[in-house]
Each structure stands twice: as structure tokens, then as C-alpha cells.
Design a protein that fits this description.
37% of the residues lie in helices and 18% in strands. It has 15 helices and 20 strands. α1 runs parallel beside α3. It is globular and about 60 Å long.
């Protein structure tokens, strides 16, 4: 059994070195995967073990130690005298050279990735994951973000994450600047599931862990696709969202916060279903999600799930798959009764109204173009706020007689205070 063998010779006291040793232990934060035993310690020797076995402190400086710890399923043996081990600088060198990551996390591409026990520095090159880490109160660990974060999250998002203002941008959704990433010395880099494989391979070569997040469950052939095909869109995005949040919670050491976020979303979803059980939807309104330059979301995207849960019909779902640009003629043929625009695209209503080809569209003529609040993210991928709040808001907009606006506003404020640590107002 691995342990510590004490010599029975006289012990010299070195108070200064003992203090250095205590500091060194705090610095290293080693996890020893073994059981330590002390045989006949000399009188006056003080040995202290923490409750979880992480740290060892001793006032005795003349002991030999054999530390057996497990790193990536391999056992390494390290034997040093305590007098040398107590020196802080030598201990730090030991930490840098000997202590390697000791946990394996499976990302949403199905890859097993080895990470440090405690992740302290994260580069995030996916805005959905960046937003989720904010909700998990883990932005203090983020040291780099995607270049297009403001375009993707909206200019107003800075109020929810002031630290992003001067954050380095070592890449984007489909590209990584290797040199810029290396300068940031991250413990892990979070990317989207459809980033080209060559970037993941290069980062692996550079010994920088990469975690791919998709917020969806799909077959192996579709895991890395931007526009995957699902047997059941709702199940794929619902369960995939929970998987993604749990994954980010593990990566950032925020498991408790992840569980709380998932619980809030699930409760809100159940409450919305209960609301719809109180009345009958005879005919679902036909609505169109308008993005810049007549781009929109068809089938295979969370947008359609959001519309369906809110009691609406996505006019684009039957004609197109994924995220695509369409023609004005196609929008006219769909004849949507209402048009919705995401908060991050404030210029879109003016684009639609100034397009002469859409002048005869009833939703444009009757000014039924609605800007969605920032939490109603009708994105291709699901978010916690969209599932917990956005679906409610859309249902309330479509069926105002059946929803209490004051009650809903309390729910919004509760979410923002709990997960963004600020007020929605």
C-alpha cells in the first residue's frame, strides 16, 4: 500500500521550511489517488491531512515519501526527502512537470478529453456556450472569446457581461488563431460542433484540450454538422441542451449551477404545457422568423421547436432545412400572418418595410412585425432563457387572453437575478 515511511533518527526542527511547505501545498492543490500511512512517527512530529485527502502538511522535515498518484490511468512514482520537498520553488517545479490532468470528459462530438481537475482558464469560441457559462457564473474563468461575440449575442449583451469588453479574441466559430490561443495559456478551448476537424487536430497536437458543444443529440454521422437531420427535432434539442449545460458545468467546475439552471428550465417548460392544457388551439398562427438579408430558420433548428411550443407554425419548416437565405417571392408564397425579429437584429424591420417586393405582404401592410426581447432567442440552437422565458413570451404574444403578464414579468426577473446576477429592467 502506498504510504510514507518515517525514519526513526533524531528530527531537526526547521520552522521556516515547514511554513514554506504549507504554502507549497496550497499552491499545488494536488489530488493524491492513494492512501498515506505513517509508521512510528518520532515524538514531536505533526502530520495533518485534509478531509478529502487533497493536501498534506507536516512539521517533520526528515521523512521519505513515496507518492503514488494516477495520471491518465498510468501510475507514476515520485520519491523525495521532505527537506527538499518542502522548498516552495522545487515544489512548484514538481507541480509543473509531474502533475497532469486527471479527469476525462466526453464532449458532444463523442470525444474523450482529458482536463485538469480544476479548470481556471477557458477560451470560448462559441457564443451559445459563452452565454451559458455566464449563466453558470463562470465568466471569471474566461480569458478569450470569439471575434464575433457582439454580433452573435447583440450589442446590449455587454451589460450582462462587462468583462467581455476588452477580452482577447483568438478565433471565431470556424477558425482558431493558434498563436493567440497559446499566449492565453488556456486549460481548455470550447468550440462549436461544426468547426473544421483540422483545427481540433492541431490543438490536440499543441496539447491544448478542446471541448466541442452542440446542444443537440444526433446520430454519429450528424454530430459535426451545422444543419443535422433528426428523427425527432424536439427530443434532439431538448435532451441535447441539457447534455450541453451539464457538460459545461463539468468543464468549468460549476456542476451545482448547471443543475440549478436545468431545473429552472424544466419547471418552466412544465408550467407552459400546463397553461396550454387550459385552452384549445384551433389553428396555429403562421409566423416567419426574419433575419438579415431574408435569411431564416427552417426545419432541423430550435426555432421551429420554440414556435411549436408557443402554439405557432413556422412557415419555413416545410420548404427549407436549417439556416438559409430565401427570396422575397418565397416569403410572399408563405404568406405569414406575423413576423418576428430577434433583438440582436434591430435593423431588420426597416429592411422588410423598405423592400418593394414585400409591400403587399399582409404582415408588412398591417405592421405585424414584432421585435423579440433579448431572452427570446429564437436561434438555431436552444438557450436556457429561450426555453424558460422566450417560449412563454411568444405564447403570451399569440394568446394574450390566457396569460398573466405581471406573473410572467416576475418569472423574467427571477431568472435574471438568479443566473445573470442583475435585473432585467
Amino acid at each position: 500500500m502506498p504510504g510514507i515511511r518515517q525514519k526513526t533518527s533524531a528530527v531537526r526542527k526547521h520552522t521556516d521550511e515547514s511554513a514554506q511547505h504549507a504554502d507549497a501545498c496550497k499552491y499545488g492543490k494536488l489530488i493524491f489517488h492513494s492512501v498515506f500511512m505513517v509508521a512510528k512517527p518520532p515524538r514531536g512530529t505533526e502530520l495533518h491531512f485534509s478531509a478529502n485527502g487533497r493536501f498534506l502538511k507536516t512539521a517533520h522535515n526528515r521523512c521519505e515519501r513515496i507518492i503514488i498518484f494516477r495520471v491518465q490511468r498510468i501510475q507514476y512514482r515520485f520519491r523525495k526527502t521532505c527537506a527538499r520537498f518542502c522548498k516552495v520553488q522545487k515544489f512548484r517545479k514538481f507541480v509543473r512537470n509531474a502533475v497532469i490532468a486527471d479527469r476525462i470528459v466526453t464532449d458532444q462530438l463523442g470525444r474523450d478529453v482529458t482536463l485538469p481537475d480544476e479548470v481556471k482558464r477557458i477560451v470560448v469560441l462559441q457564443h451559445q456556450s459563452l452565454n451559458a457559462l455566464n449563466e453558470l457564473n463562470a465568466l471569471d474563468k474566461v480569458v478569450g472569446v470569439q471575434e464575433s461575440w457582439e454580433k452573435s449575442l447583440g450589442k446590449n449583451y455587454i451589460r450582462l457581461a462587462p468583462s467581455l469588453k476588452d477580452m482577447p479574441t483568438p478565433g471565431d466559430l470556424k477558425v482558431i488563431n493558434y498563436e493567440a490561443v497559446l499566449k492565453l495559456k488556456p486549460d481548455v478551448v470550447i468550440v462549436t460542433n461544426y468547426i473544421p476537424q483540422e483545427y481540433i487536430d492541431k490543438m490536440t497536437e499543441l496539447k491544448i484540450p478542446v471541448i466541442a458543444v452542440s446542444f443537440q443529440r444526433s446520430d454519429a454521422a450528424d454530430k459535426g454538422k451545422l444543419n443535422p437531420t433528426f428523427k425527432d427535432d424536439e427530443a434532439a434539442y431538448t435532451e441535447g441542451f441539457y447534455d450541453g449545460i451539464e457538460l459545461l458545468g463539468k468543464v468549468a467546475n460549476r456542476e451545482k449551477e448547471a443543475a440549478e439552471l436545468i431545473s429552472f428550465v424544466k419547471t418552466s417548460q412544465e408550467q407552459l404545457k400546463a397553461k396550454f392544457s387550459d385552452f384549445i388551439v384551433d389553428k396555429r398562427p403562421k409566423i416567419y422568423m426574419a433575419n438579415p438579408d431574408l435569411t431564416t430558420y427552417g426545419s432541423g433548428k430550435y426555432t421551429g421547436i420554440m414556435f411549436m411550443r408557443a402554439g405557432a407554425q413556422n412557415v419555413a419548416a416545410e420548404s427549407i432545412k436549417g439556416y438559409k437565405q430565401v427570396s422575397a417571392e418565397q416569403v410572399l408564397a408563405w404568406a405569414p400572418q406575423m413576423i418576428f425579429v430577434q433583438d440582436r437584429y434591430p435593423q431588420v424591420p426597416a429592411e422588410l418595410k423598405s423592400n418593394p417586393q414585400l409591400a403587399n405582404l399582409s404582415a408588412v401592410k398591417e405592421d405585424k412585425i414584432y421585435m423579440m426581447p433579448e431572452y427570446a432567442k429564437a436561434w438555431g440552437y436552444p438557450t436556457a432563457e429561450a426555453m424558460a422565458l422566450g417560449e412563454w413570451w411568444l405564447a403570451m404574444k399569440l394568446y394574450p387572453k390566457h396569460f398573466d403578464e405581471a406573473e410572467f414579468n416576475k418569472k423574467v426577473e427571477e431568472f435574471y437575478q438568479k443566473f445573470y446576477r442583475t435585473s432585467y429592467k
